[in-house]
């Protein structure tokens, strides 16, 4: 091995290739060992410079959980770049409840109508143009802070150029493949940029059901295989049956479970942690046994 290393070093010197070895040096410790074990390394937490996907059904709490992680990172000195591709700005009150300060170390990018390049007619910005803006923000903030978090909310809401140009009536197989192809190109690039900028990439994704599936799990996530392959950590968020948290006859929150379906950050695959997501109070992360005991849950809620 030593001989091979020396040979490779000589080749790189000949080719004038200067290598910069990368290992996670900055970690976001959530302070909760069970949560750390699911989202990253049990003792260290989440590594900056990695890629994470959070998926689940609607109203499971994916965005709120991502905001809570961003709030912890913000308190750790990170700059947050939030790509709200579902065409919405974050509600300041809701963000504040999650612990996120929208007026400090925070950049929000949402779809907008404008003119681009030499084009004279206004149109809606494409996913590529908005993602390029996120990339430029990361580059601009690189010299100002040594850690960042960039959120894509959500993959399913991204509108690639080809799909936008095809319109409703011109869509077909080719335009339906634009999103997976774009995600492949994006993540091949962003995996390296994440390491260079010490930026944690968080991709929120939806669950869909394949009506043609006859065997196995019929659920899938939009965006093709690239998010599956390039993510260091993949989380599945779900509400449990009987997951409504009630107080005084009113629903005040939901409870659920976060499961690691992939973890290459030093944690445990299939590890779980429970959460209580309150509408007017911070999110609580607790042992999964507490959530199952409270709800008597044995399956997936599906809502």
Secondary structure tally, helices: 10
The class by helix and strand makeup works out as alpha/beta
- Helical content stands at 25-40%
The SSE string, one letter per element, is HEHEEHEHEEEHEHHHEEEHEEEEH
How would you sum up this structure, described in words?
It is a single chain. This protein has 303 residues and is of the alpha/beta class. It has a domain at 24-35 and 43-235: Rossmann fold, CATH 3.40.50. It contains 10 helices and 15 strands. The strands form 4 sheets. It has a 9-stranded mixed β-sheet with strand order 5-4-8-9-3-12-13-14-15, with helices on both faces. It has a two-stranded antiparallel sheet with strand order 1-2. Strand 6 and strand 7 form a beta hairpin. The longest helix has 20 residues, at 178-197. The protein is globular. The relative contact order is 0.18.
Helices and strands in order, then pairings?
Elements: H1 2-15, E1 27-28, H2 33-39, E2 46-47, E3 51-56, H3 62-75, E4 79-84, H4 92-98, E5 106-109, E6 113-114, E7 123-124, H5 127-141, E8 148-153, H6 161-166, H7 173-176, H8 178-197, E9 199-206, E10 208-209, E11 219-220, H9 226-230, E12 233-247, E13 250-263, E14 272-278, E15 284-286, H10 288-295
Parallel strand pairs: 3-9, 3-12, 4-5, 4-8, 8-9
Antiparallel strand pairs: 1-2, 6-7, 10-11, 12-13, 13-14, 14-15
């Amino acid at each position: 091995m030593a001989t091979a290393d020396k040979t490779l070093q000589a080749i790189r010197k000949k080719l004038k290739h200067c290598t910069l070895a990368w290992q996670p040096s900055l970690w976001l410790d959530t302070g909760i060992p069970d949560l750390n074990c699911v989202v990253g390394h049990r003792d260290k937490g989440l590594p900056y410079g990695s890629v994470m996907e959070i998926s689940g059904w609607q109203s499971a709490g994916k965005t709120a959980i991502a905001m809570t992680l961003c709030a912890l990172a913000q308190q750790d000195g990170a700059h947050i770049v939030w790509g709200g591709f579902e065409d919405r700005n974050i509600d300041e009150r809701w963000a504040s409840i999650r612990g996120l300060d929208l007026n400090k170390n925070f950049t929000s990018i949402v779809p907008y109508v404008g003119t681009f390049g030499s084009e004279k007619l206004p149109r809606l910005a494409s996913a590529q143009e908005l993602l390029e803006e996120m990339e430029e923000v990361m580059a601009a903030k690189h010299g100002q802070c040594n850690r960042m978090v960039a959120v894509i909310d959500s993959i399913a809401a991204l509108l690639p150029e080809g799909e936008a140009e095809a319109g409703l009536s011109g869509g077909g197989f080719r335009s339906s493949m634009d999103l997976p192809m774009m995600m492949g190109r994006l993540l091949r690039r962003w995996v390296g940029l994440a390491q260079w900028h010490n930026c944690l990439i968080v991709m929120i994704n939806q669950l869909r059901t394949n009506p043609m599936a006859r065997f196995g799990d019929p659920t899938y996530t939009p965006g093709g295989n690239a998010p599956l392959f390039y993510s260091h950590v993949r989380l599945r968020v779900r509400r449990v049956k009987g997951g409504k948290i009630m107080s005084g006859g009113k629903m005040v929150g939901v409870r659920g479970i976060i499961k690691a379906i992939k973890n290459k950050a030093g944690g445990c695959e299939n590890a779980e942690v429970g959460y209580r997501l309150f509408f007017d109070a911070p999110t609580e992360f607790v042992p999964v046994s507490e959530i199952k005991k409270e709800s008597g849950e044995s399956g997936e809620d599906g809502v």
